[in-house]
Design a protein that fits this description.
Number of helices: 12
Structural class: mainly alpha
Order of helices and strands: HHHHHHHHHHHH
Number of strands: 0
Radius of gyration: 18 Å
Distance between the termini: 28 Å
Oligomer: single chain
Largest sheet: none
């Protein structure tokens, strides 16, 4: 299943130079902007995240940690857009600046495997999984990567693991139901959706 994750990011795009801000904003950044970026990543609102990360990076009074987090969010967008060399550049700087944070290291693993040194990426990924076997961020990344590459059984496996780590997250259960459905297991899919509706009777995703 891990191999399937790597394959999802094996195809990059043509190299690009890092973006140069068209203007520089003077002043300090607000902690609320980083909270907003975290929420935008969580809800997969990539367009707004891209704009906000660029806005933050244009400031001239970023601390090293703030700059690294802004680089991480910019890199996340590039990963979704499959902007290979740009994603790799952001990921390397973010991981260097935040060596103890899981998400930047995970981004680096994905970027290296897909757009840089695949053996280095695989090594980072396996190490992260050994060190953080119950990390919801890591498990969901593995699940989504398999899903994106239409590896339904692999995605189901990791969504099941993620649900064990976050049993109250009905969005994960809805995703698990979808994976069952894509595998042709309608009974299990409907059973999972029933569990979602028990907790959230007005859940639009489950009703659809």
């Amino acid at each position: 299943f891990i191999l399937a994750v790597f394959l999802c990011f094996a195809a990059g795009c043509a190299g690009q130079n890092g973006p140069k801000p068209e203007f520089v904003l003077h002043g300090e950044v607000s902690p609320e902007w980083f909270e907003q970026m975290a929420e935008l990543e969580k809800t997969e609102n990539w367009k707004e995240l891209k704009d906000l990360a660029a806005f933050v990076l244009a400031h001239d009074k970023l601390s090293n940690k703030e700059r690294a987090w802004a680089m991480y969010y910019a890199g996340r967008v590039c990963l979704e857009e499959e902007k290979g060399s740009l994603c790799l550049s952001y990921a390397r700087e973010a991981a260097l600046g935040l060596p103890r944070e899981l998400r930047p290291q995970l981004l680096l693993a994905l970027a290296e495997y897909g757009f840089g040194n695949s053996m280095r990426g695989e090594h980072i990924f396996v190490s992260l999984l050994k060190e953080n076997p119950e990390s919801l961020d890591l498990l969901l990344t593995l699940a989504r990567a398999n899903e994106r590459n239409s590896h339904w059984s692999g995605a189901r496996f990791w969504y099941e693991k993620a649900l064990q780590a976050g049993p109250e997250d009905q969005r994960i259960r809805s995703k698990l139901a979808l994976m069952f459905w894509m595998e042709g297991n309608a009974g299990s899919a409907l059973a999972e959706l029933d569990k979602v509706l028990e907790k959230k009777p007005d859940d639009a995703e489950a009703l659809n």
